[in-house]
């Protein structure tokens, strides 16, 4: 199983590290436009192999896509991250051009690959890959909901005073500061609804902290986060590589599901060797449906800025 990651920056390198540590892929290729960076990070990571006990071969290439040929899964993390005070949507001007050209180069050498899009604004970048690549929709997956859900579980566990392993919860909708839809009504602590433990007000605070999870870290770090994003991407890669049939919220092209059409937005999907093997339609109440509709309007507004 060969995995290529374009963008050997913070998220790309973190993703490569988690994939290697989980030891399920034979090869990981890092590609970056900055001379020597991908080669250097690959060498540094390979020098962890004997210490961390993995056999995955990690190599790097400066803009040479011939090294990526025959990849089963390709991950796009190339592009600029936001700075404190910015929204993800403000990155569209620079990142759209990068994502479009990187996708074309990747598919030239790996026409059968499944594409995972990470660069922001992620839902719109995923839509761009759909509109420009001609790939079937099961093979284009946007990563956002897996990360947002991990942050939701972190905030729920904090509020509950419970271990994170006790908590289950999911975030759907757009991967933006205002567009996320945490499904609090469905969240549980070891099968017991979290509303049995937490007040309505505390749950609202958890939802708000979840939605601005990326912005909170960007303010603290001066750039956006990379450990949990890298871990979230590696979980999606593993689900596909190992045909796990795991359920994750991912940005998927919708054709009527959730009453939405012609946009990519976070919804629960089953991931296996064919990429998105099924979109799962959760029964939403009126409030959740309204939030999902608002979120979709926001994503569509950003999509309209693309020059397709
Ligand atoms: N979807 C999600 O949940 C998340 C998305 N992101 C997004 O991921 C992207 C990457 O973030 P970081 O890794 O923190 O940024 P970074 O700046 O550390 O790394 C980006 C890398 O992309 C490279 N790059 C730029 N243009 C390229 C091109 N044409 N070809 C190959 N490489 C190119 C840069 O040289 C750099 O090394 C950002 O757009 C960020 O907003 C970050 C975290 C989570
Ligand atoms: O916040 C950002 O810009 C990066 C990102 O998407 C996240 O960490 O959720």
Briefly, what is this?
The chain is of the alpha/beta class and 308 residues long. The chain is built from 10 helices and 14 strands. The protein binds 1,4-dihydronicotinamide adenine dinucleotide (NAI) and oxaloacetate ion (OAA).
Blueprint of the fold:
Elements: E1 2-6, H1 10-22, E2 27-32, H2 37-46, H3 49-52, E3 57-62, E4 73-76, H4 92-109, E5 114-117, H5 122-133, E6 140-142, H6 145-160, E7 167-168, E8 171-173, E9 180-182, E10 188-189, E11 192-193, H7 200-211, H8 213-221, H9 227-241, E12 246-255, E13 261-272, E14 275-279, H10 286-303
Helix pairs in contact: 1-9, 4-5, 5-10, 6-7
The structure holds 1,4-dihydronicotinamide adenine dinucleotide and oxaloacetate ion.
Oxaloacetate ion binds at residues 81-82, 88, 120, 147, 175, 214, 218, 224-225, 229.
Tell me, briefly, the overall form. globular
> Number of helical runs?
10
| Helix/strand order | EHEHHEEHEHEHEEEEEHHHEEEH
End-to-end Cα distance: 33 Å
How many domain modules? 2
Q: Return the average pLDDT rounded to an integer.
A: 98
Structure description:
The protein has 308 residues and is an alpha/beta fold. It has two domains: 2-143, Rossmann fold; 145-303, Lactate dehydrogenase/glycoside hydrolase, family 4, C-terminal (L-2-Hydroxyisocaproate Dehydrogenase, Chain A, domain 2, Alpha-Beta Complex). 41% of the residues lie in helices and 22% in strands. It has ten helices and 14 strands. The strands form four sheets. A six-stranded parallel β-sheet has the order 3-2-1-4-5-6, with helices on both faces. Helix 4 crosses helix 5, helix 5 (122-133) crosses helix 10 (286-303) and helix 6 (145-160) packs antiparallel against helix 7 (200-211). The protein starts with a strand and ends in a 5-residue tail after the last helix. The structure holds 1,4-dihydronicotinamide adenine dinucleotide and oxaloacetate ion. The site of oxaloacetate ion has 11 residues, from helix 8. It comes from Robiginitalea marina. It catalyses: (S)-malate + NAD(+) = oxaloacetate + NADH + H(+). NAD(+) binds at residues 7-12, 32, 95, 118-120.
